[in-house]
Write a structure and sequence with these properties.
Low-confidence stretches: 190-235
Protein name: NYN domain-containing protein
Mean pLDDT: 77
GO molecular function: RNA nuclease activity
CATH architecture of the largest domain: 3-Layer(aba) Sandwich
Pfam families: NYN (PF01936)
Number of domains: 2
CATH class of the largest domain: Alpha Beta
Strand order of the largest sheet: 3-2-1-6-7-8
Number of strands: 10
InterPro entries: LabA, NYN
Shape: globular
CATH topology of the largest domain: Rossmann fold
Structural class: alpha/beta
CATH superfamily of the largest domain: 5'-nuclease
Length: about 240
């Protein structure tokens, strides 16, 4: 079954913030969507709908650009941008929801997929989902963490993304050409006081290695940095 994924970046980001764990913002969106595919599914397009922060440079905007341009693109995620508007001193994101709904419907109309994965908890997408189902396409609704299953989405199958789901599908710290570009802010939840044995248990299913470990002699007994996975401790 041909599958396309459509990700409401703004909705996901605010759910991630509520988890109070910056690491989880560094999620591999293609791998996360693949996790929810069936064995017979073939994941094709993954669209990420977002807007850069309303600031000239630095901080959140720079981290967001690194996330998109240095990582998501290399993992086959296509970003479609909206914009921020400032009106009467209030900043609001514009166009991303409309662009997502249009892309979801247009791809269904043009027979680009058999099943759509929609990652969002925004009920404004209900009309678009109904139109897609009228075209005899399946829709799997993935709800970001902290959101409850929604009965008002009708017959659409919806599943919750958990904190563990995010933690198991993180991006690496380095780009494909070997440059370390993972923002230090996304390592802020690593507790240096923990024993290496305990920390590595949490990294068993992760594809990234925090920079702190490369500077820790004790950790070298527990991790194989070349393969990015847990190895047996030395006797």
């Amino acid at each position: 079954m041909r599958v396309n994924a459509y990700i409401d970046g703004y909705n996901l980001y605010h759910a991630e913030r509520k988890l109070n764990d910056n690491r989880l913002k560094w999620v591999n969106l293609r791998a996360l969507c693949q996790h929810f595919c069936d064995e017979v599914d073939i994941l094709d397009k993954v669209y990420y709908f977002t807007s850069f922060a309303y600031q000239p440079k630095g901080g959140i905007k720079d981290r967001h650009k690194i996330y998109i341009e240095d990582f998501l693109e290399d993992f086959g995620v296509e970003t479609i941008f909206g914009r921020f508007n400032k009106f009467n001193g209030e900043i609001k994101e514009k166009e991303t929801d409309i662009k997502l709904a249009l892309q979801l419907y247009k791809d269904a109309r043009d027979d680009k997929y058999d099943k759509a994965i929609l990652l969002s908890a925004d009920t404004d997408f209900i009309p678009a989902i109904k139109e897609v189902k009228e075209l005899r396409k399946e829709v799997l609704l993935l709800l970001p963490p902290t959101h409850k299953l929604l009965a008002n989405f009708g017959e659409v199958i919806n599943q919750n993304i958990t904190k563990d789901d995010l933690a198991a599908h993180l991006l690496p710290a380095k780009t494909k050409n070997g440059k370390e570009k993972m923002p230090k802010e996304y390592l802020s939840n690593i507790q240096s006081r923990e024993q290496p044995e305990e920390i590595t248990k949490n990294l068993k299913y992760s594809s990234w290695i925090p920079k702190e470990f490369t500077q820790c002699e004790k950790c070298k007994d527990y991790l194989d940095y070349e393969r990015y996975e847990k190895v047996k401790p030395k006797d």
